[in-house]
Design goal:
By secondary structure, this protein is an alpha/beta fold. It folds into two domains: 237 residues, Rossmann fold (3-Layer(aba) Sandwich), CATH 3.40.50.300; 225 residues, P-loop containing nucleotide triphosphate hydrolases (Rossmann fold, 3-Layer(aba) Sandwich), CATH 3.40.50. 32% of the residues lie in helices and 27% in strands. A seven-stranded mixed beta sheet has the order 11-21-20-14-19-18-17, sandwiched between helices. A hairpin with a 2-residue loop joins β4 and β5. Belongs to the ABC transporter superfamily. GO terms for molecular function: ATP binding. Keywords: ATP-binding, Nucleotide-binding, Transport. This is ABC transporter ATP-binding protein.
Length: 478
């Protein structure tokens, strides 16, 4: 199904190759999981197998790629698209339609698939991924996790021979991950070849036939066949990979009257929220009667996809209109003033990178920080070797780390993190935890939105749970 021979790829103006003499054969019906550090070449290899490289991206290609019986370099997008389904790392960047149902049928209609067949495929896919409540929604109103599920569904409706997925579990709740993996297992049972680039190995290991680790643009190790039972957590840790065991919260949850720091310390003043409501198209999307986010502690906001977690962060940052009062250290803080006191790492960090190089991005984010301190944070996140590259030329994981690096240098009172571990490998998870905990130690208000239990267990002091009705149920670890 996939035959890669001597593949080399260098993006235009890049100082080094992203792929270096890659040799890889994937037979029909196999489910292969690509792993490795951020920037190792996983996403670029998926792009090469789909035809995005070299047709959409500018650069130099050597070697050959044959996918689904087609020579990728010479085949047109229309022929490749009929045989391949692709889910990119940032789903919203691949949407074409305005509403969910139109996006789901977009590819099939463009390929001229019979309407009755489209209807049958659509019904089955919607059921597999529990998308019925979203069908009439506008894509722009969905949460990041909901958009992820729609992107996966839209890649499946035309029933491709090959399915390529880049970080499909990022931004998904545990229950949504179960739905997606169950759907992928059903797709696998039909004989479809599946290639998944993923850091959260515990989520996809049960359906993997083979595990390939990439490093520095090459295939470093190849476990074929792959069995989760014979791949220990110690082996994964030695290779810098995430655990194959599903992480669990370090502490149970218990009801309390507000989000407060654990450990017996008296929480310092911070952000308080009273009678907060947000509406969209006449419907309530967020309802938080009361919540506290103390200084010197990390408050995690958790809940199912679509519960309003990202909306809450946008409100706290002053980016979202709302009703209700928000105060910092007991003083009411209007939206405009909140924007000046807050630093935020968004889900799609490519939208918040503005400067011509990684070094400039860090320098402009924290102009009062010394060059030595900036260099240290780049080393901490493994970005020193790409300091002169354009931020948008980085991999998704590297962009995520750059946004975290700039946040780590911020001296603002409130730091907000929206799914910051998306695309982050095991080694860089350590650096991410250090940034979050350092911010709390210096006395900032730190609010973390994540579905990543490994990050929650290491970084969070308390949790604020948003239910499916977007109403806050405040709980505390203890």
């Amino acid at each position: 199904m996939i035959d890669v021979r001597g593949l080399r790829w260098r993006f235009r103006a890049a100082d080094r190759e992203s792929l270096r003499a890659v040799e890889l054969t994937v037979p029909q019906g196999q489910t292969l999981v690509l792993c490795g550090a951020s920037g190792s070449g996983k996403s670029t290899l998926l792009r090469a197998c789909s035809g995005l490289v070299p047709h959409l991206y500018d650069g130099q290609l050597d070697g050959s790629v044959r996918t689904a019986g087609l020579d990728v370099a010479s085949a047109g997008f229309d022929r490749l698209g009929r045989r391949i389904g692709l889910v990119s790392q940032h789903p919203r960047r691949q949407f074409f339609a305005d509403r969910v149902i139109d996006e789901l049928v977009f590819a099939s209609e463009n390929f001229g698939v019979d309407p009755d067949r489209i209807g049958a495929n659509l019904e089955a896919t919607v059921e597999q991924l529990s998308l019925a409540p979203l069908l009439t929604r506008r894509l722009s109103t969905l949460s990041g996790g909901q958009q992820q599920r729609v992107a996966i569904a839209s890649a499946l409706v035309h029933r491709p021979d090959l399915l390529l997925l880049d970080e499909p579990t990022s931004n998904l709740s545990a229950s949504a991950i179960d739905e997606v993996v169950s759907a992928l297992a059903a797709v696998k049972a039909t004989g479809t070849t599946i290639v998944i680039a993923e850091h959260r190995l515990h989520a996809v290991a049960p359906i993997a036939d083979r595990l390939v680790m990439m490093a520095d643009g090459r295939v470093e190790q190849d476990w074929d066949p792959f069995s989760p039972a014979t791949f220990t957590d110690e082996e994964a840790a030695a290779l810098g990979l995430r655990s194959l065991s599903a992480p669990t919260a370090a502490l149970p949850l218990a009801e309390t009257g507000g989000a407060r720091a654990s450990g017996g310390s008296v929480p310092r003043p911070g952000l308080t929220v009273r009678d907060l409501t947000c509406t969209a198209a006449g419907q309530s999307i967020l309802d938080v009667p009361y919540a506290e986010f103390p200084r010197g502690a990390v408050t995690a906001v958790v809940g199912e996809n679509g519960a309003g977690k990202s909306t809450l962060l946008r409100v706290l940052a002053g980016l979202q209109r709302h009703r209700g009062a928000i105060a910092l250290d007991g003083v009411d803080l209007p939206r405009r003033r909140r924007r000046g006191r807050t630093a935020m790492v968004h889900q799609d960090v490519g939208r918040q990178l503005f400067f011509a190089s990684v070094r400039d991005e860090v320098a402009e984010a924290a102009p009062d920080v010394s060059s030595a301190a900036a260099s240290r944070v780049l080393h901490r996140f493994g970005l020193a070797t790409v300091a002169d590259r354009h931020p948008l030329a980085l991999s998704g994981g590297q962009q995520q780390r750059l946004a975290m690096a700039t946040a780590g240098l911020s001296s603002r009172d409130v730091l907000l993190f929206d799914e910051p571990s998306s695309g982050v490998d095991r080694r860089n998870l350590d650096a991410l935890v250090a940034v979050i905990r350092d911010a709390a130690r210096r006395g900032a208000v730190v609010v973390l939105v994540t579905h990543d239990e490994a990050l929650l267990a290491r970084a969070a002091d308390s949790r604020l749970v948003l239910t499916g009705s977007s109403r806050a149920s405040v709980t505390m670890d203890g």
